[in-house]
Specification:
Structural class: alpha+beta
Helix content: 25-40%
Shape: globular
Order of helices and strands: EHEEHEHHHH
Number of domains: 1
Strand order of the largest sheet: 2-3-1-4
Number of helices: 6
CATH architecture: 2-Layer Sandwich
Radius of gyration: 16 Å
Length: 187
């Protein structure tokens, strides 16, 4: 299958594990995925990819990702390749998981899915959806109790070592998360 190349914009990226199995079995598995993500974000070839939001759940993940503006595309060293970025992350985590829990078959259902976010209203909805996904799936009653979401970095409870706060709409950063009604989210 040919690799997908993405135009400069913002995307909702998500993927689920093969047969919906749980591949984050404990805290160390979540931490390893997070460490792998940070490693690849710090590579020169992926420096133009910005994470605006994320959530890791036991059987799937979500990201809101922005890519460089068109003016940067011709700059040597700035590759617009979300496909390679997520392939590297998924491949690296699959190797870790298959060694830790001896197994040989695939870990992910296939390629990640990507939905273009082409306006601010949809971006706002996606940011809420991603940050509150653990609560939506009833993993926790209060998202403040779930550590594997960018919610904590956005509200300043954790250091912003993954998300790129400069690229997040100021209105979203000022949002009172305690007043969100998940039933109103349209997904």
């Amino acid at each position: 299958m040919p690799r997908r190349i993405f135009e400069p914009w913002v995307y909702h990226i998500y993927n689920r594990w093969f047969e919906k199995m749980m591949i984050f079995k404990n805290t160390s598995d979540f931490q390893r995925f997070y460490t792998i993500l940070k490693k690849y974000l710090n590579l020169e070839k992926y420096k133009s990819i910005k994470i605006l939001s994320y959530c890791f759940l036991p059987n799937h993940f979500h990201f809101i990702v922005s890519t460089p503006t068109p003016g940067l595309l011709g700059t040597p060293g700035l590759e617009l390749d979300i496909s390679s970025f997520f392939w590297d992350i998924q491949n690296s985590y699959a190797k870790y998981f298959n060694l830790k829990y001896p197994r040989k078959w695939q870990l992910f259902e296939g390629r990640f899915k990507a939905k273009l976010i082409d306006n601010d209203d949809y971006l706002f909805q996606c940011m809420l959806y991603v940050n509150y996904n653990a609560q939506k799936h009833q993993i926790v009653k209060d998202i403040a109790d779930y550590p594997y979401t960018s919610y904590h970095q956005i509200i300043g409870r954790q250091a912003r070592d993954i998300i790129s706060a400069d690229d997040i709409n100021e209105d979203f950063m000022k949002l009172d998360f305690t007043q969100i009604d998940l039933a109103e989210l349209e997904f």
